[in-house]
């Protein structure tokens, strides 16, 4: 499946006309050139909007705020098509896991019958739609996730265990982690004594150090924060999942004292939505400042995941990963708190345009449009560099026509595509 795209653009690309984000509250009008997957030049010079060489594809993003592609610190990509499954409230993730396997076994079996590669691709698309270019997948790194044409970049160098309860011997998993890479594990996910004790058990096992990345941490108290600081461990929080399952939010007034805290959107099994939905939820319910929220989905997760290619920033020699939204004359941090996937109109991954709104699609050079297909999601049309018609057909074979939802949102092929009137590249 998905032998589909010959069509990414290997030649250099120049993005010009937009306001470029250099930090949460720092922007400049700039032209950005990307070649061989990396930013080669950033010219803050309005008198020289074009920095392109003759073989360079130029993209006009006038009227847009150009931000770094977001970094999603925690997801389970194969669950993108699942509905929320729970009968809350629970005391711990153990109770939840046991309950859904018995109470929702038919739903789980039905979704599992969709080919795994199809489910993984929808997980990538779910991230792409909200401006994510790099995602940490908390499960085995399936070959499909390592394809060059996968919609987003999936972190490849890491170690992981599910949890103390469901992860087997975590010391074995830690020993198998590549040198210098993060070791990621669910921990303290709940409100009971067992959840609170997990942090100390990880420490007794020798697993709590500067490479340790704990996901959730809901039951961590102030003494636990002190231990995390001493061990220089990192934390990824997923507030909407915690609220849904346990009726409790992570207390970022003291969890924020941990050196590195990032935000992940978890899976649709428990989360409110995608990463942008999670940002808005965290700001609304956890009193998170816009500046902190911006860092938690850009530079901080890149540091936690030990990414070394300037992910989460726009820098010369860094990854050519960009997203763009309409410019409303606000800085990036303030703009982020109001964004949803409906606002993301352009995404570039390593210099290749992966997503475009209809407005931006009209501005793209003809060679850049090659390989892009339209998808309607929750009232918004987007052009994606993905075989969406094939993917939707495969999912509908199991879930039925009009039965497929992506992160709880309805999706379909636009009517003109369904009727066989395939959009031409000159549309």
UniProtKB/TrEMBL annotation:
UniProt domain Amidohydrolase-related: residue ranges: 198-327
Cross-referenced Pfam families: Amidohydro_1 (PF01979)
Keyword annotations from UniProtKB, A to Z: Hydrolase
TM regions (residue ranges): none
Key word Hydrolase present: yes
The keyword Hydrolase is annotated on this UniProt entry: yes
InterPro entries: Amidohydro-rel, Metal-dep_hydrolase_composite, Metal_Hydrolase, MTA/SAH_deaminase
MF terms in GO: hydrolase activity, acting on carbon-nitrogen (but not peptide) bonds
Protein name: Cytosine/adenosine deaminase-related metal-dependent hydrolase
